[in-house]
Design brief:
alpha/beta
């Protein structure tokens, strides 16, 4: 039996950084489900698919194959066999991901892949609907959040360090829009599972959040 930790929460709460560190400490596999949705979005962008056109979207999805592999314990995502991991973090892909991931067909395409991984391995899986839809029986569920201002500032510093040119206000606006879309869509909206533990990281360091997750995990027999 595998041990599964689900971490859900809004964009910029620090899920991936924290989940990666905690996974390393626990020798678990870190599964970034956002990267899988981003891979599909990149495929849709490349083919200039009109995602409001259901028939066009379905035809495009049929031709998109998402793969996931671990190289030196790092997750790599593949679009029809091509490693697209370095190409999926642009604002354009983020925007398309937020819109296309609301579609039930897009979500259905990834559900089995995510559940299979969790059934085979001890995983820390992060996303929006992991505790509610994908792994409702996960041994530990965390809902990780932070204030919009804190998340915008983190994203701003991250992209500024990479030479990005968005202002903090623009990023904050984008985060508000994405939060709204992620939590108001019909299929698998972002929400805290009833049995998830809420962690607000606004005034916590990364290390403090990681330690809290390790402490919670240690309460279970690993
Ligand atoms: O975590 P992230 O920023 O890489 O996620 C990108 C987008 O994908 C975000 O708008 C929400 C969506 N997403 C989702 O709908 N379900 C998931 N399990 C993971 C991400």
């Amino acid at each position: 039996m595998s041990f599964n930790i689900a971490i859900d929460g809004p964009a910029g709460a620090g899920k991936s950084t924290i989940a990666k560190l905690a996974a390393k400490e626990l020798s678990f596999i870190y599964v970034d489900t956002g990267a899988m949705y981003r891979t599909i979005a990149l495929g849709l962008l490349r083919d200039s698919v009109d995602i409001e056109n259901e028939a066009e979207l379905l035809a495009a999805l049929d031709k998109i194959e998402v793969g996931i592999r671990y190289v030196d314990q790092e997750q790599h995502v593949y679009l029809n066999g091509e490693d697209v991991s370095p190409l999926i973090r642009t604002e354009q892909v983020s925007d398309m991901t937020s819109r296309s991931s609301a579609n039930p067909q897009v979500r259905a395409k990834l559900t089995a892949l995510q559940r299979d991984l969790a059934a085979r391995e001890n995983v820390i899986m992060d996303g929006r609907d992991i505790g509610t839809e994908i792994l409702p029986n996960a041994e530990l569920k965390i809902f990780l959040t932070a204030s919009v201002e804190t998340r915008a500032q983190r994203r701003y510093l991250e992209q500024a360090a990479k030479g990005g040119s968005y202002t903090q206000e623009e990023i904050e606006q984008d985060i508000r829009e994405r939060d709204y879309r992620d939590s108001h869509r019909e299929t698998a909206p972002l929400r805290q599972a009833e049995d998830a533990i809420l962690i607000d990281s606004s005034d916590m360091t990364i290390e403090e959040v990681v330690q809290e997750i390790l402490r919670l995990a240690s309460l279970h027999k690993l």
